[in-house]
Amino acid sequence: MLMSLLAAHAGIVTRCPLELRLKNSHKDGARWKGCIHYVKGGKERRVEVITPGNVGDAVMKAQNDLTGTPTDINMDNLITLEVESPDIPDLTLIDLPGIARIAVQGQPRDIGNQIKKLIRQYIEKKETIILAVVPCNVDIATTEALKMAQEVDPDGRRTLGVLTKPDLIDRGTEKAIMEILNNEKYKLSKGYTIIKCRGQMDIDHKMSLQEAMEKEHSFFNSHKHFKVLWSERKAGVKTLAGRLSTELVEQIKNSIPSLKEDVKNKLAATRRDLLHMGDGIPDEPNKRMLFLTDLLRHFVEDVQKTSKGHLTLVHMTTAHPMKVKKPNKHLYGDVRDVYKKLASTLNGMLPDNNMLEEIKDAIIENRGRELPRFMCYPVCEAIIREHLQKFRDPAFECLQDVSALLEGAFGALSTTHFQAFQELNRKVKGKMNELRLQHEKKAEEAISQIFAMEHIVFTQDGTFLQSVTVMEASTKLSFHFEISEEGKEAEQMLLIICSYFKVAIQRMIDTVPMAITLHLLENLTENITSQVNVMGAYPEETLKLLQEDPESEDRRRMLEEKLKRLLKASQDLMPASTDVHYVWYRS
């Protein structure tokens, strides 16, 4: 059918994927109409085709335009040929390049592999019916077409075999051809059909399609072996077209549910994108002011929800609203993970037996009037203060991690709400970053204040004694030096130091995150809210930023058109469409 429309030339006839859309015209007196269109350099090109006889030349010109030469192939660009006629069924076929074995001059050496890769991209799709076209005068068992079809469709449920060139077979091989057509050899669930297309001489002599089909009918009716095939409806281009139409119903039954689901998902995604894009800017001044107020209000609401750990519309409608380690969490979940990391780090810094030598040396160096076993409190306090300094870096690292999370989260919110307004988005992001750095500085000061307070070695007596009791019950200290009075004192002092740090660490695990939360989540959010509200209260300058960039306008228009197409597709799928894709390729 498709081969009957296209001219036959030496080398590769089909050098680009060619989509043939057949549409039956039900109007009285309707005539044959054709059109070719394809995209080159980002622009669509359309060519009207006057008669069926012009199709082959029109396709060749389009291919040459895309490939640049008469021998090259183009894997990426699709040529669409639309044909409307009262004599054709509603079908969509895709003609792919024949499988080349030897590269001709001007073609890459791996032309065969390139074509196979292209073919596989199409025939792997489960909704595709494969038309494996094989000449009668070759050994069908060795043909690449059936071999590739079997790789993706091992049961042969999607493959229809098409035998061509029955006039070129050797005498005595008719029986083998009949066995294949009767599905006795190389079985396919959909079986085989044999057709006779125009030869090169017929094309050179401008034989019409009608004359070609009459010649085909005459050939089969007069053939000693193949005559029966015509009556059994296993031969002829019209028979093949009828079989394809019959396959439509079953294919639709299988594909409609998945198509509906696909359209449903794309509809949801398109509506979500349109929602994020928002409506265009109104022309009337009052409406522009209301538009700006709503835009800023929705942004502020999402900032407040995000900082308080609530889900926003952005989280609920966007797969990856921000760059976070775990996309299934929102901001507060990631901040909590940072706080857990701080707790784990500080708990891992509890003094241990490795400090015994250091404590023993300090006791010896600072021995004064104290009798043995009298603990030197200044030594103990000095060791606590020195070890405490090691906790500063993890605390400030925690602050930086939370600040980075906020920068990403609030930046993502700004981009989502103001993605169509680059200047406004830049202004809001700049203001938020300025405020964030200010509050980060205040958080640094608060953490420094916490360590200044921790420098005062203090906790309630009851809290400390309880920690000592727990440590005495659970700690087993061991020495790597001979037991001495100083060693026993070092062991006792380490127990006291560990008991104190148990209390101090728990205190810092709480107070450092509380300081960060106060300044970077609570106060920063309030300040952002205040500044954005000021932008709305004095709209003169803000309205100047409310200029939609051309790309956003084009994207909104594209999404609106896409939504219309998807809604129509959804409606068309309700009663079940009568269109299906076939992939036609030759060995």
Descriptive overview:
- By secondary structure, the chain is α/β, with parallel strands linked by helices.
- It has helices at 2-5, 55-67, 111-123, 144-152, 174-181, 200-204, 209-222, 227-231, 237-277, 285-307, 313-317, 331-347, 356-365, 377-388, 392-418, 422-454, 461-474, 485-537, 539-545, 550-573; strands at 18-24, 33-40, 43-49, 79-85, 91-95, 129-135, 159-164, 192-194, 581-586.
- The chain has a nine-stranded mixed β-sheet with strand order 3-2-4-1-5-9-6-7-8, sandwiched between helices.
- α4 (144-152) links the parallel β6 (129-135) and β7.
- The radius of gyration is 39 Å and the shape is elongated.
Give a short synopsis of this structure.
The protein is α/β, with parallel strands linked by helices.
Query: β content, as a range?
Result: 5-15%
Q: Helix-strand pattern, N to C?
A: HEEEHEEHEHEHEHHHHHHHHHHHHHHHE
Radius of gyration, whole Å: 39 Å
Share of helical residues: 55-70%
Low-confidence stretches: 1-12, 315-328, 576-580
Largest sheet: 9 strands, mixed
Helix vs. strand class: alpha/beta
Write down the overall mean pLDDT.
82
Distance between the termini: 17 Å
Total helical segments:
20
The rough form would be described as elongated
Number of strands: 9
Strand order of the largest sheet: 3-2-4-1-5-9-6-7-8
List the helices and strands and how they pair.
Elements: H1 2-5, E1 18-24, E2 33-40, E3 43-49, H2 55-67, E4 79-85, E5 91-95, H3 111-123, E6 129-135, H4 144-152, E7 159-164, H5 174-181, E8 192-194, H6 200-204, H7 209-222, H8 227-231, H9 237-277, H10 285-307, H11 313-317, H12 331-347, H13 356-365, H14 377-388, H15 392-418, H16 422-454, H17 461-474, H18 485-537, H19 539-545, H20 550-573, E9 581-586
Parallel strand pairs: 1-4, 5-9, 6-7, 6-9, 7-8
Antiparallel strand pairs: 1-5, 2-3, 2-4
Helix pairs in contact: 9-20, 10-15, 10-18, 12-15, 12-18, 13-18, 15-16, 15-18, 16-18, 17-18
